[in-house]
Design a protein that fits this description.
- The chain has 194 residues and is α/β, with parallel strands linked by helices.
- It is 29% helix and 20% strand.
- It has 7 helices and 7 strands, in the order αααβαβαββαβαββ.
- Strand 4, helix 6 and strand 5 form a beta-alpha-beta unit.
Length: 194
């Protein structure tokens, strides 16, 4: 059982709220971009309690989904839920730091970050690690809040304009970087590893 004492129960409840899927359904990412061919895993960076990992594991049942996060407690909760759901294709990877991915270089068939980019203090550092983790030609997908204030969206907080995410990906060496109009309150930006 995960240690809930060190984590805010209200935050966990918000992260697990099924209403979030109506606002930003992570499976729509797979309508835009698919994992590269081959046996490599899909890597969910900033996985938290599994908002992306668990639905991806159900949809991509023949592929390993690696949930990476800097909080061990979140990964414990995710593992418990994956086991309860009978998802045997989920594994977790504790990130030793905010710009380090504990995955083999060139192994990932796809990498996803949902509502993570705005929290980064060192976007170039993490994106360089993401590029190293991906196989050549494998896609990256970044979903985050749109920069403008919108009704029904939490006010304040850090926002990153979609153009900045595009620039960050290009600066990190990703190719074919572009935005997609998929969500009303979130941007979706994709690219592929060189």
């Amino acid at each position: 059982m995960a240690d809930h004492l060190k984590m805010d129960p209200a935050r966990i409840a918000r992260l697990r709220d099924p209403a979030r899927y109506k606002q930003v359904d992570p499976l729509k990412i797979l309508d835009v971009v698919e994992p590269a061919a081959g046996a490599g895993p899909v890597i969910d960076v900033g996985a938290g309690v599994g908002f992306v990992t668990l639905p991806f594991a159900r949809r991509l049942a023949d592929r390993q989904i690696v949930a990476a996060d800097i909080q061990a407690g979140m990964l414990d909760l995710l593992s418990e839920q994956a086991a309860a759901d009978g998802l045997e294709n989920v594994s977790t990877a504790l990130m030793p730091g905010p710009t380090t991915l504990p995955t083999a270089d060139g192994s990932g068939a796809m990498l996803v970050m949902l509502q993570v980019h705005h929290e980064l203090d060192d976007a170039p550092g993490l994106l360089a690690a993401c590029r190293r983790a991906l196989a050549p030609g494998a896609p990256i997908a970044i979903v985050d809040w749109k920069a403008e204030e919108r009704p029904g969206v939490p006010q304040g907080g850090r926002r990153v304009p979609a153009a900045r995410i595009v620039s960050d990906l290009e600066d990190a060496g990703f190719l074919d970087v572009k935005g997609h109009d998929v969500y009303p309150d979130h941007s979706l930006t994709t690219g592929r590893a060189p």
